[in-house]
Amino acid sequence: MGHIQGTDRDQLTLFPEALDDYIAQENPVRFIDAFIDSLDLQDLGFTHAVPAETGRPPYHPATLLKLYVYGYLNRIQSSWTNGPLQSPAGKGSRPQPGAGLAPGQAHP
Questions:
Q1: What angle do CA 72, 33, 48 make, to 5 degrees?
Q2: N or C: which end of the chain has fewer CB within 10 A?
Q3: pLDDT (tens digit per residue) in 87-100
Q4: Terminal Cα-to-Cα distance of the chain (whole angstroms)
Q5: Which residues in 3-38 are b (16+ Cβ under 10 Å) and which e?
Q6: Which range is least confidently modeled, 39-43, 53-57, 60-64, 95-99?
Q7: Is 61 exposed, middle or buried (0-12, 13-18, 19+ CB in 10 A)?
Q8: Which candidate, 26, 44, 34, places its Cα nearest to that of 9?
Q9: Do 18 and 11 touch, CB atoms closer than 8 A?
Q10: How many CB atoms are located within 10 Å of the residue 73 CB?
């Protein structure tokens, strides 16, 4: 049994012809994709790089790592954080120091 696979970026769609056409050639996401594809995740210690024979297939670790690196580089927070994803002032403003900390929790 293999990993859960996403849509092939070379698969033809109605507009534009391929999903890969949505991404500019100079977009950093292309570097992330190529770099992580060049890694041997099993040698790096990713325990689920080889999927189990039973159970629901997991997402491929390379796909999850690509999402993690993209989110980190673009400062996208996980929905699993303690605080809001954006400051109350709205998109584009900087969160206040200590935002997202539990009451009484010290600032790191």
A1: 80
A2: C
A3: 455 555 555 555 55
A4: 43
A5: beeeeeeeeeeeeeeeeeeeeeeeeeeeebbeebee
A6: 95-99
A7: buried
A8: 34
A9: yes
A10: 12
Task: Answer yes or no: is pLDDT of 16 > 80.
Answer: no
Tokens of 100: 């997202």
Please report the pLDDT score of residue 53 as a whole number: 82
Residue with tokens 């605080």: 83
Tokens of 30: 């292309």
3-class DSSP state of 72 = helix
